[in-house]
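Suppose a classmate hands you a notebook page containing two proteins, each written out with its sequence and a corresponding row of structure tokens. How would you begin to make sense of it? This section walks through that situation. The first entry is reproduced here exactly as it would appear on such a page.
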Amino acid sequence: MSPPTDLDSLSAADLKALVISLLGEVTALQQVVAEQRAEIARLKGLKGPPSIKPSGMEQASERKARSGGGKRRGRGAKRTPVAVEDQILTAAVPAGSRFKGYEDYFIQDLVLQPVAIRFRRERWVTPQGRTVVAPLPAGIDGHFGPALRRFVLAQYHQGQVTVPRLVALLGAIGIAVSKRQVVRLLIDRQDHFRAEAQDVLRAGLATAPWVTVDDTGARHKAKNGFCTQIGNDRFAWFATTGSKSRLNFLELLRAGHSDYVISAEALAYMKSRALAGPVIRQLAADETKYFADKSAWQAHLDRLAITALKVTPDPVLIATEGALWGSVKAHGLLTDTVIVSDDAGQFQVGRHGLCWIHAERLVHKLDTFTEQHRAAQQRLRSLIWWFYSDLKAYRRDPTPARKAALRARFDRIFKRKTGFATLDRLLARLHANKAELLMVLDRPEIPLHTNGSENDIRSQVTRRKISGGTRSDDGRDCRDTFLGLAKTCAKLGISFWDYLGDRLAVAGNATVPYLPQIIANPA
């Protein structure tokens, strides 16, 4: 309460009542200040940010194996993946001893030593005066052999060894090589690897029923950028760019194509993004529907005077996004593919599903201030965990009855009122994403989370931490290329070491099929 402006007009009883009231307010304020000081002191005492553990929803909702009863299985013998070389070891025995065969003892070892080869190439001069020089063996490309090139690529990209440490390691082994030469081994003449990585993306987007996506920060040429991951359980692909916009994501989904296409899919995309009707009709009525590159597309927008429009949403941006989406569809990519993301706006294109782990994390990380708030939060988390466990069961055995029951149950969970205003607003927001969170009911084959993408992109985060950023476009592209190829090999059950050996023509290496063919034609 506020005191009256004229205190002199108050009687003694009124003044006494006023003082008692104000003293009560002061006491309450002192209590609030004391609580805030205690909270500030507690927060100052923390070392680093507060520790918030992961929600554990995925692990807690896994089916538990029945304990007891079953016999514990042993690990079994580990097979040696290389040919075994037999060496006979003799023993000193006294005269008259009887030979009882052999006792086997296996070891694995590694032979790592430098080799310098001088190829003496015959030179001939033909009667016509033409000089003929004997060709180099297969795999020789430059003054470092294919086995050394494989070792450098595997150590840097799979082993996450930095260039200075790689130079020191090679020097310790006995290889005379400089830092500049190691960098050239990593980025020069790698066009065939880049082409294969590009084809991996095209094969994946053309055949995959679903992909998950994610991005993380990346430094390039001393500027902050973003590395985007696209993949599923059979392939992974990375690209580092300066933007994380929806326009950038659509450009990546073109998988290396540079054209722009106005098609029915493109016009439908523009309509869904609220592009003005006259602009859509103008683009649809024009006879030109295909544009080879960005300059041709920009010239088309200028000719139609679309670039001169100053309205919201930006007609140039939405039209360009639509033309990119038309290009994606024209090349047979993402025909019926569901894109599963963490609800970042740039990934919301085409058929889109949302990650349940990220959705529950919003509830998990919600700030609570009272016991009632915490109780409401924990109650909601338990309901979500239970629902998530039943979604996993539905994926294993989808039925129409289960599908209808889960839809109704979703509404009961996310439409409830808890009395905790912040939580209620969050529930309303999650309910608005019902179609995307329940995409799995229509497509049981898709995952409920983006854990695969987060695991894939962790290698990029590790590389960023130990090596910083890239300085050249070739270095950036090769880093993304080999990280994607290494992850793809792991998902296909192929040794990255054998893959590099086959592509670099290392003598005696096993043959590894072209990765896009494996992805496009699963066994």
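The notebook's second entry, a different protein, reads as follows.
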Amino acid sequence: MTGSTDAAHRGSRAEQEQGPVFLLDGNNIAYRAFYALPQEIATSDGIPTNALYGFCLMVIKILSDYHPSRVIVAWDSREKTFRHEEFQEYKAQRKPMPDLLSEQWPHLVQLTEAFGFSNLAVPGYEADDILATLARRSEADGRETMIVTGDRDALQLAGEHVSIMSNTKGMTEVKVYDPAAVEERFGVSPRLIPDLIGLKGDSSDNIPGIPGIGEKTASSLLDQFGSLEEVLDHADEVSGAKRKELLKEHRELALLSKKLALLDRDAPIEADSTATVPWRPDLTRLKELFTRFEFASLLRRVEALLPEDDEEGDASGNASDAVGSGVAAEGGGSSGAQDRWRSAALAPARRVSAGKGAPKELVDWARRVGLAMDEAGGLWVAQATAESSTGEGGDYAGLVVARVDGPVDGEQELRKLLAKGQIVCHDYKAAAGLHGLVERVDHDTYLAGYLLDPGQRGYELQDLARAAGLVLPAWGGWEQEADESIPTEGAIAAALTLAVAPRQEEALRAQGMWDLFEKIELPLTEVLLAMEGAGVHLDTYRLGEITGKVQDQLEGLEASIYESAGESFNLGSPQQMGRILFDHLGLPRQRKTKTGYSTDARTLEALRGSHPIVGDILAHRELSKLMSTYLLALPEAVDPQTGRLHTTFHQAVAATGRLSSSDPNLQNIPIRTALGAQIRQCFTAEPGHVLVVADYSQIELRVMAHLSKEPALLESFARGEDIHTRTAAEVFGLAEGEVDAEHRRYAKAVNFGIMYGQTAFGLSQTLGIEREEAAEYIERYFERLPRVKAFIEETIEAAKQHGYVASVYGRRRLIPELRSENFQERSLGERLAVNSVIQGSAADIIKVAMIRCHELLQADFTGARLLLQVHDELVFEVPEKLAEKVRVAVSTQMASAYPMDPPLGVDSGVGSDWASAK
């Protein structure tokens, strides 16, 4: 089952009848939404809404991409189920529902009902059992069925007409499993998923399985013997004495685990409860709820999905006025007329007049061209003309509006139109319809909004308009001439983009950030687009070998942990782990939490060396994280058409100006561990090419030295000394030849910790030393580097006075925490102030280097391209014969990105893969 690629197509009610049936696990989606989105998301009066908003995003994606005929939402029963009777520890490790989610829970059913869906809960049964029963009935009727849940036990339901959709990240990125995909991922067919769980267990449901048996071993055994029962009956034929012993000792536990994992396909559900008519939203109710929860853009997206002959949908055409951008679009055409417009490749330009209420900025920006993306993914081109409108409000500039859905016969005509004026858009990088259509962008309201307030969660156009003081309760007087098929919403969005831009430019110039915006952020967008398009080659075969070895290591660690504990337990349960460590083994208790004593990483690091089990647990955690984040995830992210990973770079997320990446996130691959190096070895160059890796050397310490003018640091860099060795010698009172690896490690922690305001307590925790000793290190550090201390104090004082700090390129960050009455908040603000100056400066320098290197390669080195930016390093793919010339050239560009004392340092290398080029 595949989703529609035509988001604008809505079809008729009759066509909708033919769509698939969607069965949603309400509990799972709600919890997923709650933890996927920031818990700070709330209404202006403090009502938490992150779970509600995420739930709606998922629902709208389903409606938009799959056009389902019916949607049924299943919910867990409040009563205990038959599984609890079979096994009292079933799901016992799960924490109570968080308070913030509990506040939102009653509204979830209200939302689903307003969407027009059916809600089902059956006493004594879980949502998965309801989904299983409904899927069986739907499949029997020959209906294509999609089950939406993150529970892996639901994969047993995949069949000829049944697929399983699971979120991979956030709320709108999903993976769909049919039987083939299940077998490819887990090595067994869907019917054997309960058998797999019977062997390996399921920590999310507290199903024990057999201790020491992991997923790889379990799938291998099932492939060999065919079922759990056969595996257990032939335990003597299994290789490995320990494995045989485990299978025999825990036979009953395995059978019970399988029974717990089997879904009931005959839950007592009355036929009438599923005989729903095709979904039809109650727009009035949705409007009420969306207005209450301040979901500004969602209702319009739902309306756009209604079948074109849905009279009820047409009757509520004004619903979006109150919950959209705050701009009322009067006189909108019928949904059928708007759909005809949407289907046009390049419709003839029509004039839309702005009457009373049009902002003055619209007049001031006459003869300029604006570009805006609508929510269906199309492009609006709005050109302000010199002609006067006939509106009552006097002589205002008119708007010429056109819609473009992609490459069209009239592309040359469009290019001429675009070439006439200044290009203004909102989020150019995300606007795929623009790429290649315009040669330059003069203003991007999305990036400008980010620079002006880098602490926001997002930069929607209507929110930026509010921030600029532009949005009115009703922007009246809009009149359509000649043809009602022109959707005024697109015209208003384009006009709003035009109106916001000059105010942003004024603010950026006033704050000294116009050059940063015009010469760094705007050009960088093109560089990032090129990098995303290029991608990087991944050796999936080599990565698979590493995955197999790590899986074996994990299984060995599990066995060792259980042996040390004297029993098996759920490694994912803090309560069970606390019982083993503190009650059974008698290790020193550390920090107390609401549910017991902490077993987090900081606690375990403090206990390292007190018992062998602690080191094994830490190693297991690290390997498990790498397994799920990279070893299993990276191959799935490879584009089947290009054979390369195409990560997405985010330019407007980090408040410091740092870039981030997702799908996949390549920023956090370990650099200095053996396994991290092995993973980097899998990032390779294409045949005939090599990778060039250029890395800034201690850029943040150099920025600190430049800004503080600390003589000791400047001297050390001028001599080419190792800065951490020099610090160790000064702090510990040693000759540099006496500094060993441990001294240097301590000094490195001191250098970076003090730079970012780390306290004696924090440093003691980092180094595992007494607080008094850490305080002595800090005191000695500042005695020998007094200008560093002065710089930190001056930066904090300036931030308190002005309310913000700035990078060397003028990038500002507001620090409101410094004005808090709470001591911890103020302390955080002090750390953020210094951190933002140093990291922001480093981020700007790297961006300048990326732009220069990209331009250099395009001009002088055909076939060479920039692929990745990770922290302080850039990765290039280069024809082998050009490798040395490119290495020297990009190193030179990076070193000259900003004039500093001490100068920027760059380490570079060449290799067939990422690791060998370091």
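A careful reader of the second entry would note: Residues 511-535+646-701+812-918 form a domain with the Alpha-Beta Plaits fold (CATH 3.30.70.370).
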